[in-house]
Design brief:
globular; about 160 residues; Bifunctional nuclease domain; alpha+beta; single chain; seven-stranded mixed beta sheet
Length: about 160
């Protein structure tokens, strides 16, 4: 399976449901992938994007500190599967000459990748499946396929800054 590198384009609120969305953009192209996430995970991602220092470590910061202390590198995170409108991800760790793969929610994997300065990849299979009408939107947040495509294509940088912590 081919992996395609993506970067975070922004965080925003779904205008219909007010659910947070992480919008990923292909690093070498224009493809966009929205991933609906929970409010706490969105906050963890937003805090890192905005470089906000918290007085005490948050969960993802704690995990980063543990990994750093143990000299474990996060080599990449991969959004590896889209099944029943749910994304799945893997976190790839390197400890010495050993590679470890950990199952993760994409939102946690992205929050960790941001803190560890690790690349984010999406498999070509997930990209293809997400282009099918309504494949990526949770059941309660589904729209017609063309509507979501138009909505994403018309996002402006101002739209992507509308997520408030």
């Amino acid at each position: 399976m081919k992996e395609i590198e993506f970067r975070i384009k922004g965080l925003m609120m779904d205008p219909l449901t007010n659910a947070p969305i992480v919008v990923l953009q292909e690093a070498a192209g224009d493809a966009l992938l929205p991933i609906w996430v929970g409010i706490f995970e969105a906050n963890a991602i937003a805090l890192q994007i905005e470089k906000v220092d918290m007085p005490r470590p948050m969960t993802h910061d704690l995990l980063k500190a543990v990994l750093d202390h143990l000299d474990i590198e996060v080599t990449k995170v991969v959004v590896s599967e889209l099944r029943d409108s749910t994304f799945y991800a893997l976190i790839f760790l390197r400890s010495g000459d050993r590679t470890i793969t950990i199952d993760s929610r994409p939102s946690d994997a992205i929050a960790i990748a941001l803190r560890m300065d690790s690349p984010i990849f999406i498999t070509d299979e997930v990209v293809a499946k997400s282009r099918q009408p309504d494949a990526a939107a949770p059941h309660s947040e589904r729209r017609a396929g063309e509507d979501i495509k138009k909505w994403l294509e018309n996002l402006s940088p101002d739209d992507l800054g509308k997520y408030k912590m």
